[in-house]
Specification:
about 10% helix; single chain; about 130 residues; 3-stranded antiparallel sheet; mainly beta; globular
Length: about 130
C-alpha cells in the first residue's frame, strides 16, 4: 500500500526542469578580451580595489588574451591603491591545458581558485614601476 501511494505521488508531480548549463565549482575569474566587452567591467573597492564584471556579477583577476587547444595566454592583474592612485601588478602566464594530471609545473597564481598548471610565467610585481 505504501508503494502504491509513493508511485501515485511520483506520477502526480511534474518532472523537475533539466539544468542545461551546470557549472561545478567556483565561477571563473577570467575575462576573455576578444569575446567580452570591457564596458561590462568596472573598478570597485577603495581599500582593496578590484575589477568586477557587472553583467556576470563576478570578480575578474585574469584577462584571457588567447585560448588555443593546448595553451591559454593570460594576464593576472592585482590593483594596488597607492595614495589614491591605482597601480596595477601583472603576471603574464601561459596555462598548459594538455597536462592536467602533471603536478611538476604547478604554480600558485594569486587570486585563482587553485594552483594552475603553468607553461610559462613572467611576474613583473617586483619591477612594476620600471615596467609601466
Amino acid at each position: 500500500m505504501v508503494n502504491a501511494a509513493v508511485t501515485a505521488q511520483r506520477d502526480a508531480e511534474p518532472d523537475p526542469p533539466v539544468v542545461r548549463r551546470l557549472r561545478i565549482g567556483p565561477p571563473t575569474t577570467e575575462f576573455n578580451v576578444v569575446l567580452q566587452d570591457f564596458s561590462d567591467s568596472e573598478t570597485r573597492g577603495h581599500g582593496f580595489p578590484y575589477v568586477y564584471h557587472t553583467r556576470r556579477g563576478r570578480l575578474i583577476t585574469e584577462f584571457l588574451f588567447g585560448d588555443r587547444p593546448q595553451v591559454a595566454t593570460l594576464c593576472h592583474v592585482t590593483l594596488i591603491n597607492k595614495d589614491g592612485v591605482l597601480s596595477p601588478r601583472i603576471k603574464l602566464w601561459k596555462k598548459d591545458k594538455t597536462k592536467a594530471a602533471r603536478t611538476a609545473a604547478m604554480e600558485a597564481i594569486t587570486g585563482t581558485e587553485a594552483p594552475q598548471i603553468v607553461k610559462a610565467l613572467v611576474d613583473t610585481s617586483d619591477v612594476h614601476e620600471n615596467f609601466w
